[in-house]
Amino acid sequence: MKSYEVNFDGLVGPTHNYGGLSYGNVASQSNSQQSSNPKEAALQGLAKMKALMDMGFQQGVLAPQERPDVAALRRLGFSGTDAQVIERAAKEAMPLLVASCSASSMWVANAATVSPSADTADSRVHFTAANLNCKYHRSIEHPTTSRVLGAMFANQQHFAHHAALPAVAQFGDEGAANHTRFCREYGEAGVEFFVFGRSAFDNRFPAPQKYPARQTLEASQAVARLHGLRDEGVVYAQQNPDVIDQGVFHNDVIAVGNGEVLFYHEDAFLETDKMLAELQGKLAKVGGNFQSVCVPRSAVTVDDAVRSYLFNSQLLSRPDGSMLLIVPQECQANERVWTYLQSLTSAGGLIREVKVFDLKQSMQNGGGPACLRLRVALNETELAAVNPGVIMTAPLYGSLTAWVEKHYRDRLSETDLTDPQLLLECRTALDELTQILKLGAVYPFQIN
Length: 448
Fold this sequence. Notes:
Elements (H helix, E strand, L loop, with lengths): L2 E8 L15 H5 L7 H17 L4 E4 L7 H6 L6 H11 L1 H7 L11 E4 L9 E5 L6 H4 L2 H11 L6 E4 L16 E4 L8 E6 L20 H10 L7 E5 L2 H4 L10 E4 L2 E5 L6 H14 L5 E5 L6 H7 L5 E4 L5 E6 H5 L1 H12 L4 E7 L2 H4 L9 E7 H6 L8 H14 L12 H17 L7 H4 L1
Parallel strand pairs: 1-2, 4-5, 7-8, 10-11, 13-14
Antiparallel strand pairs: 1-15, 3-4, 6-7, 9-10, 12-13
């Protein structure tokens, strides 16, 4: 039976704005308060989805969330009609209104952690929505995320869904941005690689001093238990606290893996040699041949990696066994990064080709190609059980492009977030989107 890695990309929402909400994310903070272009952002994301589909890769789409989140503002004490809630929040607590308008759900690498059926005890694909409790504007995402994933992967014979972990610091969970899976074939048993920034209960593990470590060891272990993973099929590794303090807020900003290959920066991890040996040994037990590509700090600094998002790329397997790397334009603009990539591909090694995409709107808010996609390994039977409305096709691309052109603004500033009309625009757009994607009622305004 054939198996696939399907990339489900997040569709950028109508309230895409530069609120500067993510402390520890250099791009998010440096572009704070600039005017954004939601229409351009959504079209850039859709263009990447279609390009990958046209290259022969399985591609899906994951819907955005309702914003502003009026229900979240009501829980914080704002009352009245929806328009009055927005007006009061704008007058009394503008930062909360900005947070409630965040379109950060576009970065669906943080939506959930996914384990394929070949790895799990009950032979189903398991999803655990990430609690994202390190940042308020992201902590409000997981209820809708769970409903959307449930509507996409509804067949209980093939798919299992778990609620987010307890929303406390000890179980901070950022989803697939700190999770990679290595395997010989997507439908065969593999090794799941969980990267954490700190331990909540064991002080033997060092912690960063400047920026928060968002993923805990305990959260990763809990997800592995929920998914029924075998101990011999799991490797835990600690992210280097020093690189977190340099703006590497998730592992996918400093490393990316796929198939049997890990592409990583020299300074990404603690105890790197031990971790690589464990990955190699465990993958070998299930018939795999683990390989790694280390980018030396002498060629690309951590600062280069953070500013270019070299590692926040998509590493894709091609039929001939070689790898394709999908990178943002910022990599081409960085002389050291681009020089390294040219030497990498000309060497005839594992990574043979680099393709560049314009994702400026997302990049300026702190998310690159890897942030925009959630990877789900599926066999043919499981893929057939996925809601067909969310699988990218040429007609769906056309429908979504027309939908964006119809509903999205081409400029959004902080002042615009105070306009109650924006909420009506968002709800009208999302109501139509659920029909296009055949999701049913997944948003609070559709349910309540």
